[in-house]
């Protein structure tokens, strides 16, 4: 179990567009998605664990639909810093979660996909 002050692997309503899955789990765009039970379970767990779920704009619609906030990486990191919840679940890449941690050092920041990376960020080295 991660402690406060860590970035760990576990596991939208930001830019003004709250979204929810429709009947049968269909997403806002009408594409079939996870069933409503899945979304309800994620939201229940977030409530129970004092967590806010943030999803970057490029995430799948199913992830965006269950998230409390969506947006670009900087906007989401700012939301993480201002969030009342003690835990941030950042559906994005490592540097996004790291930025959220810098802006919210007392919060636990989780990233659901340990392999999430950014080819642009990976292409930069210390000499550049």
Please tell me about this protein's structure.
With 128 residues, the protein is an alpha/beta fold. It is 34% helix and 16% strand. The chain is built from 5 helices and 5 strands. It has a 5-stranded parallel beta sheet with strand order 1-5-4-2-3, sandwiched between helices. Strand 4, helix 4 and strand 5 (108-111) form a beta-alpha-beta unit. The protein is globular and about 50 Å long.
Strand order of the largest sheet: 1-5-4-2-3
**N-C termini distance:** 36 Å
Average pLDDT reading = 74
Rg value? 15 Å
Structural class per helix/strand content? alpha/beta
- Give me the strand/helix succession: EHEHEHEHEH
Q: Pick out the low-confidence regions.
A: 1-31
Strand content: 15-25%
Number of strands: 5
Percentage of residues in helical conformation: 25-40%
Shape: globular
